[in-house]
Amino acid sequence: MNIIELANLNAFYGDKKVLNNINMKIKKNKITAIIGPSGCGKSTLLTVLNRMIGENGGSIEGKVVFNGKDILNYPKNELRRKVGIVFQKPSPFPLSIYGNLAYAPLYYGVKDKNLLDNIVENKLKISGLYEEVKDDFKMSALELSGGQQQRLCIARALTVEPDVLLMDEPCSALDIKNTANIEDMLLNLLDDYTIIIVTHNLFQAKRISDYTVFILDGEIVEFGETEQIFNNPKDRRTKEYIEGMYG
Ligand SMILES: Nc1ncnc2c1ncn2[C@@H]1O[C@H](COP(=O)(O)OP(=O)(O)OP(=O)(O)O)[C@@H](O)[C@H]1O
Ligand SMILES: [Mg+2]
Q: 59: which DSSP letter?
């Protein structure tokens, strides 16, 4: 089943077209990786999906359908609740660990302390952070290591029960061990969530994604099952990119 469908999608910053005629369908409960050289439009594509592009000074033409409905027909806060985003640089709020996780549920009106505790505990467990921080809920999240901060941010993104998690190079500031932790976590999330991940790390795309889309100069060159894209690319440019010819 497709959770997101883009049809004839163009994206602009001012007069400059940065995404050209994007057509793609994102499968539910799968990981889709977006790869391509710097500046090709990967981050822009993510910001189209939660309409953040408008706040970044950009605009779109064409159609983006999420759960069967045009994204323009969702109130922005509802869309962003259902389509969460995690960035490259971990960005915990300057609050306690508990405060970070409780923030959005409190905002959305969860008042019951037990329920709040359950949400915090459950999301920390999913993110693999619980055992490491269970005695330090009151500690500032800013005191965590970079890898822990990123797992906290993913856990925080999950507290509002999104359907889709957009991730823009979530591991590029992390070492191998923390990257492995996060990759394991993402694979464990697929029963409940759909993940779209931008990555410069082709090995990462190969390891964890089900589908891969290769973008060049704002256009989709090739989109398919990850195994096919990496083992049997149809387009010469895809082959050149994954062989490291340009980057
Ligand atoms: N807020 C903005 N205002 C104007 N131009 C922008 C803005 N954000 C991105 N661009 C331009 O849009 C194009 C696509 O940028 P984008 O950030 O989507 O690329 P990217 O594939 O994510 O690159 P990278 O791998 O370096 O993160 C680039 O030419 C970039 O300079
Ligand atoms: Mg980017």
A: E
Are 211 and 32 in contact by the 8 Å Cβ rule? The answer is: yes
Q: What is the rounded average pLDDT of the residues 215-233?
A: 98
Ligand 1 residue neighbourhood (C-beta within 6 Å): 13, 18, 36, 38-44, 56-57
Q: Tell me which residues have their CB within 5 A of the ion that is ligand 2.
A: 43
At the fourth CATH level, the homologous superfamily of domain 2-91+162-242 is: P-loop containing nucleotide triphosphate hydrolases (3.40.50.300)
Residue 44 pLDDT exceeds 80:
yes
Cα(first)–Cα(last) distance of the chain, in Å?
Answer: 33
Helix, strand and coil percent figures for the chain, each rounded to 5 = 40, 30, 30
User: Per residue in 112-128, pLDDT tens?
Assistant: 999 999 999 999 999 99
Cβ neighbourhood burial of 37 (10 Å; 0-12, 13-18, 19+): middle
Which residues have C-beta within 8 Å of that of residue 163, sequence separation ≥ 6? 3, 28, 67, 82, 83, 193, 194
Give domain limits for the chain: 2-91+162-242
Protein residue with least CA distance to atom 10, ligand 1: 13
Radius of gyration for the alpha carbons in the chain, expressed in angstroms and rounded: 18
The reported pLDDT for the residue numbered 246 is: 60
What token pair was written down for 16? 């400059």
3-class DSSP assignment, residue 103: helix
